Amino acid sequence: MSDNKPAASKVADADMPIYGGLGMTFMQFPLLSSWQNSQAEVIVSGVPYDMSTSGRSGARFGPEGVRSASINLVWEGARWPWQFALDDHLKVEDSGNVLFKHGEPQTLVDNLEAHIDKVLAAGKTALTFGGDHFITLPILRAYAKKYGPFAVVHFDAHTDTYSGGTKYDHGTLFHHAVTEGLIDVEHSIQIGIRTAYDYENHPFEVLDAAWVNEHGAKATLERINQRVGDKQVYVSFDIDGLDPAVAPGTGTPVQAGLTVDTCLKVIRGLRGHDLIGMDVVEVAPAYDHADITSLAGATLALEYLYVLAANKGAGTDYLTK
Questions:
Q1: Is the pTM of this model over 0.85?
Q2: What does the DSSP 8-state code read for residue 4?
């Protein structure tokens, strides 16, 4: 009787990135093949991680969902209402997914921070797709090493400033970011909040969802401009900032949220600010309908890229009248 043992290549491998495979790139942008030869100004990355979620799991499939949904936006060429084609003015490459050992969240923290370090050291900026919102904390740490404290414009249903969570928790990331001195809280603002927080000692200005829905994008932008001033700005967009009627595919949905139209207008209105990075997190395609949440995430990210191109002086008339 044979006593053959499994070949080494057949045994379980904790280093194998089960959810790390790349099906397609965002917006069919070129896949980053060489850091040394890359001409990209923006690097897209996926982080298929959701071990820090307190609600429904599934955001590990967010990068795949957003990239897949972006195919619906490729055919336009020049996206309405912009007057130019993005590819003519901004070079973007997709670096694939950040890999880590499943079941070991510290490897995600270490690998993601090192990856963003590499992006910034190469003179590029990051557009990152989560994954749950905890992924923003290692990103902010990398950014703070290069820029020092900077302003954050944060879209969310939750403030994520809760101090009672665990070490790896998508509801505590901004508590840690403040405690570690990563961001300039006096110039940061949270938009779309509609869950409880410490109203007396909260470090950020908050424009809750009811206020934004009542006053609209123009008034929201005025408040953002006043708060941010001339600081460098990082944008963090938790997809549950949107109303679950338009974004059901997320782990912690909260009713009475923002519309995609309002958020697009606000992001578009950030033109002129010194934007240094963005993440779109908490897209969980398993709870989606007809990919509308993934499409919302892809659309918001694409709008941000158009703003970066406009900041470079793309075209002469950026918006339709």
A1: yes
A2: P
For the purposes of burial, counting CB atoms within 10 Å of the CB of 33, is it exposed (0-12), middle (13-18) or buried (19 or more)? Answer: exposed
Q: For residue 305, give both structure tokens.
A: 């890229």
Where helices occur in the chain by DSSP H, the ranges are 62-69, 71-74, 105-121, 136-147, 173-179, 209-228, 260-268, 292-311
Whether residue 7 is predicted with pLDDT greater than 50 in this model: the reply is no
How far CA 118 is from CA of 35, 48, 139, 281, 304, in Å, comes to 9, 19, 11, 21, 21
For residue 243, the one-letter residue type is D
Residues facing 207 on adjacent strands: 191
Give the tens place of pLDDT for each residue, 27-47: 999 999 999 999 999 999 999
User: How far apart, in whole angstroms, are the C-alpha atoms of residue 86 and residue 321?
Assistant: 19
The span from the CA of 25 to the CA of 206, in Å, is 34
- CB 281, CB 127: distance < 8 Å: no
232 — alpha (psi -120 to 50), left (phi > 0) or beta? beta
Torsion angle, alpha carbons of 213, 218, 152, 111, to 10: 80
For 96, phi and psi rounded to 5 degrees?
A: 85, -155
C-beta separation of 296 from 253 below 8 A: no
- What is the residue whose two structure tokens read 């996926």? 46
Contact 26, 129 (CB under 8 A): yes
pLDDT at 23: 74
Alpha helices (H) along 162-318: 173-179, 209-228, 260-268, 292-311
DSSP state of 30: P
Q: How far apart are CA 258 and CA 216, in angstroms?
A: 10
Per-residue pLDDT for 1 more than 50?
Answer: no
